[in-house]
TrEMBL record:
Record InterPro entries: SLC26A/SulP_dom, SLC26A/SulP_fam, STAS_dom, STAS_dom_sf
Keywords (A to Z) from UniProt: Membrane, Transmembrane, Transmembrane helix
Organism field: Komagataeibacter europaeus
Protein name: Sulfate transporterc
Pfam families linked: STAS (PF01740), Sulfate_transp (PF00916)
GO BP terms, alphabetized: transmembrane transport
Length: 573
């Protein structure tokens, strides 16, 4: 019973439970942001090696760009920061135009970020977010699994204390295996201990900020005991300070030369960010607005270019880290940005003592968590064909690259869809002996719905690639019918569109059937299909009176034609 003061009998203020839950959620996001910062700050420093940029610019990618995406993007989970895929693309292109690490090189790299922002703005204006609709759940599961394997392989070198030069994950694996005799034992033991602590802790206390505790703890141990004395490599010195906003000083000719690399980066940004945001939105049943995310990515890259750093992207690994840390909104990313600002101003000195193997071990456990074995098993059980697609996507991401893997997955998804449309289900409707109703059966020679009557169903839109299948089925049924066919009824319930090529084939087919005194009647014709039939001149060939909105009226019309021709009345209902 509620009292007039808005309190229940137990003394709890109405609405206080949701308020407490909201406060608890915000506290979880803030804590997740702290954990995310201590995991990811060292990681983005590592990406500067791929980008051939000063280490501090890695921190800049998780300062203003994070804030910009949080303000303009829609995804609750996507972490926009430095990314290895885009870093590899622009560094290889810009490296041919200027000396890596030089002032001119840094200006060119920042201009790539600004140009990417401009292209992304165009993509938003043209609402190109629909491209993400071609990423099925199957593709997303395979994509994340491939990224997980790729990242796990990349982390093993730092976990073992060895050096590899290859960027391809498989080549990295071969180089790692070739150098196993040079493994640094203290590094290996520390890595194994970190992995064991995190994986055991995730089972026992999944909400605990283990990564944060691990990073802080190992920094303190490294500062106290000097772990570098044992051959354990650390991050090393980092120059601090906040970025200065400015427009990169780049000539017009240089801007034109940067366009190919920028275009490649933009395609990767859209595809990878969409795949990542959708994968985690599906996991938490959140709404998706890909066009708003593109605007957020545009703002983030504009902030990156103006603050003197490099192109940023939606990172699947860092997003997985955020989710694993308990982040459920962009408040965690804003907390991450605030921590980054504090680190840039006050705390760059302690970071130099963080062992690289600790960071690699944390990322390794996150990468393993991105491989959703339960989802893969469910896909295999329900749809072996789609399971193959998921495996091919994962293999492509690992063997070729993230961006190539995404585009290959989209291409394979479209191919699979076209193949279904090219080879659709077709059937003949016949009276069932027990129910007395018309039931679908596979198309085979010698079948009829009733003496002199065939009711045929084609379960796809008609286009240039499958019109031959339609014509072939009809000819097989008519040519091999036990009694001469007088009426062919087309159940068009699944046909909503006919293209120009298919229409030409149908006109030829129906003209041939008319010459053989076979009347063609369409049933379940939608207004869309009727418009196509009129526009493509199919209606005059079969006559408008033979086009019906319902199947039963089409069959009744066929019965009348057969009766008028003194053919026995078929016993169908």
């Amino acid at each position: 019973m509620q009292t007039g003061t808005g309190r229940s009998d137990s003394g709890t203020t109405a609405g206080s439970v949701p308020a407490r839950n909201g406060l608890r959620a915000r506290l979880h996001d803030i804590l997740a942001g702290l954990s995310l910062a201590f995991m990811n700050i060292p990681q983005v420093l590592g990406y500067t090696r791929i980008a051939a940029m000063p280490a501090v610019t890695g921190l800049y990618t998780v300062l203003l760009p994070l804030v910009a995406f949080a303000c303009f993007g829609a995804s609750k989970h996507l972490v926009v920061a430095a990314d290895s895929a885009t870093a590899a693309i622009f560094s290889s292109a810009v490296g041919r135009m200027a000396t890596p690490g030089s002032t001119h090189y840094m200006a060119l790299v920042s201009m790539v970020a600004l140009l990417s922002a401009g292209f992304l703005l165009v993509a938003r204006l043209f609402r190109l977010g629909f491209l993400a609709d071609f990423l099925s759940r199957t593709v997303l599961v395979g994509f994340l699994a491939g990224v997980g394997v790729q990242v796990a392989l990349a982390m093993t070198r730092d976990m073992l204390g060895i050096t590899t030069t290859a960027h391809n994950p498989l080549l990295q694996l071969f180089q790692t295996l070739a150098q196993l005799s040079h493994v640094n034992i203290p590094t290996l033991l520390l890595s194994a201990g970190i992995v064991a602590i995190i994986m055991t802790g995730d089972r026992l206390t999944p909400r605990a900020p283990l990564a944060l505790v691990t990073v802080v703890g190992t920094i303190m141990v490294s500062m106290t005991f000097g772990l570098s004395r044992f051959g354990i490599e650390t991050i090393g010195p980092i120059v601090g300070g906040l970025p200065r906003l400015s427009i990169p000083d780049v000539s017009w000719n240089d801007m034109l030369a940067l366009l190919p690399a920028t275009t490649s980066c933009v395609f990767v940004i859209i595809a990878q960010s969409a795949a990542t945001s959708r994968a985690f939105a599906l996991r938490f049943h959140d709404p998706v607005d890909d066009n708003a995310d593109i605007l957020g990515l545009c703002a983030a890259n504009a902030a990156a270019g103006l603050s003197g750093t490099f192109t940023v992207n939606g990172s699947p690994t860092q997003t997985a880290m955020a989710v694993r840390a308990g982040a459920r909104s962009q408040l965690a990313q804003l907390t991450f940005a605030i921590v980054t600002m504090l680190v840039l101003v006050f705390l760059t000195a302690p970071l130099q003592y963080l062992p690289r193997c600790v960071l690699a071990s944390i990322v390794f456990t996150v990468a393993l968590g991105m491989i959703d074995l339960q989802a893969m098993v469910a896909i295999r059980r329900e749809s072996p064909g789609e399971f193959g697609l998921a495996l091919m996507t994962a293999a492509a991401v690992v063997g070729i690259g993230v961006e190539q893997g995404i585009f290959l997955a989209i291409a394979l998804s479209l191919f699979r869809h076209v193949r279904h449309s090219y080879e659709p289900h077709t059937m003949i409707l016949r009276r069932d002996g027990q129910s007395g109703l018309l039931e679908p059966y596979d198309v085979r020679p010698g079948q009829q719905t009733a003496p002199g009557l065939i009711v045929y169903r084609f379960c796809a839109d008609l286009f240039y690639a499958n019109a031959t299948r339609f014509a072939h089925d009809v000819q097989v049924l008519v040519d091999n019918a036990p009694t001469p066919v007088r009426c062919l009824v087309i159940d068009a319930s699944a046909i909503t569109d006919i293209d120009f090529s298919a229409a030409s084939d149908l006109r030829d087919l129906f003209t041939t059937l008319r010459a053989r005194h076979v009347t063609v009647i369409f049933g379940r014709v939608t207004p869309y299909l009727r418009a196509d039939m009129d526009r493509h001149r199919i209606t005059p060939v079969i006559s408008a009176v033979n086009i019906h909105a319902q199947l039963h009226t089409a069959i009744a019309a066929a019965r009348k034609v057969m009766t008028d021709s003194e053919i026995s009345k078929p016993t169908i209902h």
